[in-house]
């Protein structure tokens, strides 16, 4: 038996990175998954690989109310109900705070913060109608501390954690648990955008990233998307049945302190 047998879960940002690994793991554990993303080619390919009996893809810009409403309809049409949500979609921009253009700051807020809010607002009533379930929001290590050059990102992830706590309190009576995963550095294109640059040397880029996190993370390495996915699974299944409103850090010990060795 899988940990998510009979469950129907929407995963946003599911075309690659953490969202892809969450979708793969959830299907392996018995769930049927609606994959949402704006990377249509990659999302459609992943859904086809997983199989239409257990996975469907929809274009989902998390900043748009109509996209959210269409995703909820698509999930119910395909699988009959919705009883789980992973608000994984997010973007990261590197900039000194005083040099950050307003448009850039607002873009990060729209995707990371407003997208999470719209997901909760749209899907929570569907989860309640299904008899209860879970919402997992992707916050960040930076939801619990500060970090230079990611001011917009850190601000939105603090907000996601606040939304998580409020939603947990408000939705508990509806049998919906709401928690947050707080990843540190994870080996995805968002963390290492040079990996997407055709002009960059992938091997050199990987060496630079590995060297950085070997120095600053106590466990001596960057995290892998599958490690975050396993935490999202825990928070989406009965193993976490008495947990709600909490942040769960998955960062190799980074928040505990930076190694000087």
TrEMBL record:
Keyword Oxidoreductase: yes
Pfam families attached to this UniProt entry: adh_short_C2 (PF13561)
Cited Gene3D superfamilies: NAD(P)-binding Rossmann-like Domain
Domain of life: Bacteria
Keywords recorded for this protein, A-Z: Oxidoreductase
PANTHER family: DEHYDROGENASES, SHORT CHAIN, ESTRADIOL 17-BETA-DEHYDROGENASE 8-RELATED
Protein family (similarity comment): Belongs to the short-chain dehydrogenases/reductases (SDR) family.
Protein name per Swiss-Prot or TrEMBL: 3-alpha-hydroxysteroid dehydrogenase
